[in-house]
From TrEMBL, chain A:
GO MF annotation list: ATP binding
Record's protein name: ATP-binding cassette domain-containing protein
InterPro entries, alphabetized: AAA+_ATPase, ABC_carbohydrate_import_ATPase, ABC_transporter-like_ATP-bd, ABC_transporter-like_CS, P-loop_NTPase
Record PROSITE patterns: ABC_TRANSPORTER_1, ABC_TRANSPORTER_2
Nucleotide-binding recorded as keyword: yes
Pfam families: ABC_tran
Keywords, ordered alphabetically: ATP-binding, Nucleotide-binding
Residue ranges of domain ABC transporter in the record: 12-248
From TrEMBL, chain B:
Subcellular location: Cell membrane
Function: Part of the binding-protein-dependent transport system for D-xylose. Probably responsible for the translocation of the substrate across the membrane.
Transmembrane domains' residue ranges: 33-53, 65-85, 90-108, 114-134, 141-163, 183-204, 225-243, 249-267, 296-321, 333-349, 356-373, 379-397
Entry keywords, A to Z: Cell inner membrane, Cell membrane, Membrane, Sugar transport, Transmembrane, Transmembrane helix, Transport
Species whose genome carries this gene: Antiquaquibacter soli
One Pfam family in the UniProt entry: BPD_transp_2
The organism's place on the tree of life at top rank: Bacteria
InterPro entries: ABC_transp_permease (IPR001851)
Upper lineage: Bacteria, Bacillati, Actinomycetota, Actinomycetes, Micrococcales
Keyword Cell membrane applies: yes
Principal subcellular localization: membrane
Record protein name field: Xylose transport system permease protein XylH
Topological category with respect to the lipid bilayer: Multi-pass membrane protein
Length: 263, 408
């Protein structure tokens, strides 16, 4: 694994993204930027369009309008395989693990290593340990079925799984929604590991404390539109909630305004 | 999870035995009992029948039992595959009957050479499986319904192939009948095969352990490999010796064991096998992982029907005949019951080819044991049904224990 040393490679840039489902305008004219080595949180109320934005990035839905560039090159992402080919991995809310398979099998599912035409279990297990150790992940054994792991450990496996293909951008849709305090801390820790590896991380969460703990930048969506692009260091949780609910003026919060707004 | 007492990473260099014990406990607590219940059940069944009738465990009777097991066991092997992807095939009995009919009509009535007829018989099964697989993937119809329709439709085709005669005898001198009834491994060959099988198992374990040690992963210690291999060698040699007291190990039964071993290798050592388990565990996850799910479905339905057809060929070879009731009666249910009794889950994703072998031996033991006591089949159906029910209850309970542990 190589760690990117340049602080700010512009990985993803979305401009004017719109998407409607019949009469529902899920997204209108949304912009989003992601740089290497940063965690961008996307927050917003239920139905604000967060999942829709992620689905466009991961190739589940095409956008109706707007441009996506990846590493400065305009791209179209028409299916999940193309997204993965570009280096965009998505960890869905419902995990997408096979409970009956062990950790190694899940990590390598669909891209198993082979030797003499058969599965190379030794190489896969060894590289699984390497990966989990790099992530500082707490997994008791890589040879138990995923069904025997706790919710937090399963989330860790799901995240580690996304790294096997060596992606540039990792998207996590509510990774801590079903977890307790200790397990949440573990996943947040892991997200920091991802940033240290130089990945661009997109985090969707309803939990403002989690977002403040781990992200560098917060992009607020409200009713399918941008309603703020905030540097975490500059804002309080009240201001974030204000932007989510529409209580504060979006234009005031737009861009990386200096600490003038902070009390 | 308590974060205090678990090391950040379990030490991959810890002793292999301890790791193995810990993995087994984790599996058992996760509700994954494997072959343990069926082996225990088989021992109980054998003890009970031996007490009721001391000829049950005689060499002659056990040789008959193995020869009866080959056909249904081969069909059950295919059923294991469909169950693994979380589907079902209710038509295996009809498909085996169709293959019997194709074999008999082609060979006896049309006078075609045996190899051609055998290929045609198995191909007829493959074709049926292809049809099931395509309907399943194109239209999303549940396999329960497709194969229930297939049960009737294929039975109709079988009757049409047999034509007005309805029953055709295979010439006793033909090698296919000899194979099904008279061919037994010479004693020396049976022992040689046992040694070769155990030897290659031991060797593969040693090579694996060496590679794992080189990769600094926990490996099974050489001592454990030796103990296991010797135990296996003693068990298989004793079994071969006991069968050799009368006619010996049937070639057809040996072929069934070989098929089971090959299926097991394909399931555990290939990408295809891994995708079979993945589809059975979580189709959506398999699809998102880039597995071509439809190909897995079609390949499994084709394999299941092909194995059912091969089972039909075995049955015709053993009975030296094919007729309108070939593959009828309890063939279907015995094959499906064998897979489930052997420990393959009805809920998909859990099981192994070994369960077809163990399951069919349980079913045939019940059949043979009761036939010795009471030729009436009423009791046999009731007991087989009860054992099947027991197996399904165990399957459901272990699934529930997984769910209770938050591991469904
Ligand atoms: N496939 C779809 N068909 C029709 N409408 C959809 C579809 N997907 C999303 N929508 C609608 O688009 C809007 C945005 O939904 P989205 O799931 O993106 O919200 P969200 O921000 O992820 O909400 P939550 O916090 O509840 O997950 C909602 O009004 C939703 O009903
Ligand atoms: Mg959502």
């Amino acid at each position: 694994m190589t760690y990117s040393t340049q602080p700010a490679e512009h990985l993803l840039s979305l401009r004017g993204i719109s998407k409607r489902f019949g009469a529902v305008r899920a997204l209108t004219d949304v912009d989003l930027d992601v740089y290497a080595g940063e965690v961008v949180a996307i927050v917003g109320d239920n139905g604000a369009g967060k999942s829709t934005l992620v689905k466009i990035l991961s190739g589940v839905h095409p956008q109706d309008a707007g441009e996506i560039s990846f590493e400065g090159v305009p791209v179209t992402i028409s299916n999940p395989t193309e997204a993965r080919g570009l280096g965009i991995e998505t960890i869905y809310q419902d995990l997408s693990l096979c409970d009956n398979l062990d950790v190694v099998s899940n990590l390598w599912l669909g891209r198993e290593l082979l030797t003499n035409g058969g599965l190379d279990e030794v190489a896969m297990e060894q590289q699984s340990w390497t990966l989990l150790r790099e992530l500082n992940a707490r997994i008791p054994s890589v040879r138990v079925p995923v069904a025997a792991l706790s919710g937090g450990q399963r989330q860790v496996v799901a995240i580690a799984r996304s790294l096997v293909g060596d992606p540039k951008v990792v998207i996590l849709d509510e990774p801590t929604a079903a977890l307790g305090v200790a397990q949440t801390a573990e996943v947040l820790n892991l997200i920091e590991r991802l940033r240290e590896r130089g990945l661009g991380v997109i985090l969707i969460s309803h939990n403002i404390a989690d977002v403040q703990a781990v992200s560098d930048r917060i992009v607020v969506l409200r009713l399918g539109r941008n309603n703020g692009d905030l540097r975490v260091a500059d804002v309080t949780s009240e201001m974030i909630i204000g932007a989510i609910t529409g209580a504060s003026d979006a234009s005031l919060l737009r861009g990386t305004r200096p600490a003038a707004v902070a009390r | 999870m308590t974060t205090t007492d678990i090391p950040t990473i379990a030490d991959p260099n810890e002793s292999g035995a301890r790791a193995a014990v810990r993995d087994f406990v984790a599996r058992a607590r996760g509700g994954d009992l494997g072959s343990a219940p069926v082996v225990a059940g088989l021992i109980v069944i054998w003890i009970v029948f031996e007490i009721l009738n001391p000829t049950f465990l005689s060499s002659t009777n056990l040789v008959n039992l193995t020869m009866q097991s080959a056909a249904v066991g081969t069909i059950a092997l295919g059923v294991v595959l469909v169950l693994l992807i979380g589907e079902i095939d209710l038509s295996v009995g009809s498909v085996s009957g169709l293959a019997s009919a194709v074999l008999a009509v082609g060979f006896v009535e049309l006078g075609m050479p045996l190899p051609v007829v055998l290929v045609a018989a198995v191909a007829s099964g493959a074709l049926v499986g292809l049809l099931f697989g395509l309907i399943r993937t194109r239209f999303g119809v549940p396999s329960f319904v497709i194969t229930l329709a297939g049960l009737l439709g294929v039975l109709g085709v079988q009757l049409a192939v047999l034509g007005r005669t309805g029953s055709i005898n295979l010439p006793f001198e033909s090698w296919i009948v000899q194979f099904g009834t008279q061919w037994f491994l010479p004693a020396w060959l049976s022992y040689t095969l046992v040694v070769a099988a155990v030897g290659s198992y031991a060797w593969s374990q040693v090579v694996l352990a060496r590679r794992r040690t080189e990769a600094r992963l926990p490996a099974v210690p050489l001592r454990t490999i030796i103990v296991r291999s010797v135990a296996l060698l003693v068990l298989l040699t004793a079994a071969a010796w006991y069968l050799n007291l009368s006619r010996g190990v049937g070639v057809m039964f040996a072929l069934f064991l070989l098929l089971a071993a090959l299926t097991q290798l394909a399931l555990t050592r290939t990408r295809w096998g891994r995708s079979v388990y993945a589809v059975g565990g979580n189709v959506e996850a398999a699809r998102r992982a880039g597995i071509r799910v439809n190909r897995v479905y079609v390949s499994v339905f084709v394999l299941c029907s092909s194995l059912a057809a091969l089972g039909g060929v075995f049955a015709a070879a053993r009975l030296a005949a094919a007729n309108q009731s070939s593959g009828g009666g309890d063939t279907n249910l015995n094959a499906i019951a064998a897979a489930v009794i052997g420990g393959t889950s009805l809920f998909g994703g859990r099981g192994s080819a070994l369960s077809a072998v163990l399951g069919v031996i349980v079913i045939m033991s019940i059949t043979s044991g009761l036939a010795l006591i009471n030729p009436d089949s009423s009791l046999r159906y009731i007991i087989t049904g009860a054992v099947l029910l027991l197996a399904v209850v165990i399957d459901s309970l272990s699934r529930r224990s997984r769910a209770a542990a938050g591991r469904a």
